[in-house]
Amino acid sequence: MAHVLFSDSAKTDLLEAWLFIAEESIDAADGVIEAIHQEAQTLSLQPLMGRLRSELAEGVRSWPTSTRYILFYVPDEDGVMVLRVLHHARDIPNVSMN
């Protein structure tokens, strides 16, 4: 089975997203995080379906989730490594992918 690994930066992004959304609704925050995790798992089964984002770093791809967040990831031999999980309104070119 394909795997999904989240970098420390991606874990921090998820926590920050959850905290922001939870200010209004814990259920909504839980739903967004669950949707992101489910879509990352789907992405791990077809890791090349995201858009190549060479302008950000070599091998980085992006996938817009059904939420307002975009997954930035690199495929690996067993699935994907999610580098960042960023809100679609962020200034993406100025964000580190590390």
Tell how many strands the DSSP assignment holds: 5
Biggest sheet architecture? 5 strands, mixed
Broad structural category = alpha+beta
Strand content: 25-35%
What would CATH call the architecture?
Answer: 2-Layer Sandwich
Overall mean pLDDT score? 93
Strand order of the largest sheet: 1-5-4-3-2
At the fourth level of CATH, the homologous superfamily is RelE-like
Q: Domains counted in the coordinates: how many?
A: 1
SSE sequence, one letter per element: EHHEEEE
- For the record, what CATH class applies? Alpha Beta
Q: Tell me the radius of gyration.
A: 13 Å
Question: Uncertain segments of ≥5 residues (pLDDT<50)?
Answer: none
- What coarse outline follows from CA principal-axis ratios? globular
CATH topology: YaeB-like fold
Q: What is the helix tally?
A: 2
Quaternary organisation? single chain
Instruction: Determine the fraction of residues in helical runs and give it as a percent range.
Output: 25-40%
Produce a short descriptive summary:
The chain has 98 residues and is an alpha+beta fold.
Task: Walk me through the structure.
Helix content is 36%, strand content 28%. The chain contains 2 helices and 5 strands. Helix 1 runs antiparallel to helix 2. The longest helix is centred in the middle third of the chain and has 20 residues, at 26-45. It starts with a strand and ends in an 11-residue tail after the last strand.
